[in-house]
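User: For my dataset I need records formatted as: sequence, then structure tokens, nothing else. Please produce one.
Assistant:
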Amino acid sequence: MDFLIECIGFGPKSDPLALQGLLEEQGEPTPWRGNSTDQRRLRLGQGLELRGERHANGSWTLLPHYRVDTLLRISAQELASPEDSRFEALLHGWAAPPVPGLSADEYGTYLLSVWISDAARLPKPLPPGHTLALHVAGFAVDLENIGPNQELAPRALLERPNGALIEPLGGLDNPGGCAHLSLRIKEVRNLKNQISGETVQVCLCDAPERPLALLISPWQVEADGLPAPRPGLRIEGTFLFLGELGGGIPGPKRVAGRAFG
């Protein structure tokens, strides 16, 4: 999924081998990811990072990372770890769960699945329904449209909470960390990748409880003839959600009894 690094300012002509060399020479170990030579991150400034994982055969996987300055609460429904990695896990749960005594909502506002990069911090098994606080950002896998809010959104969508459509892909049994979104842009932050010099646009989009931060490829926007994102427009597409823990990690006493993992 190296194409995702376009979202943090490394264009289609970027040399993956050169980026791997930068990770080795100028990068640092990624916290909670094990071997310091195989799990690397390169800080790009303003919360942007390039992260890399070297596999047993010597190949690398490059991924984007953006540390959002807010936390999203997610009530865990399922936590699954891939067989080939003990460091990360796919969390599927209800975002913005109700606060006891303050909300009559039984579950949460919307379902979301997120790959947690530092899942080694979590006890296993994890109590069902436990609420975690996460730094979460979405990266464009397939950008479908950017356009006027009233033109893209039918009335039924505009009447939803915050006018937001957030649907995990593959159904509830196979979320895969991706979701199809239709969201209204509230703010666009222009950041700079200090390695490539390229501008990185972070779209803060209207969503229940907390705005969602979405990062897109400007090269895809240009190739598809889409307008540049700006407040008031609506953005639609498929996004991969990546995050790390910011709070709510249960202590030893809270993992006793019925649990999943």
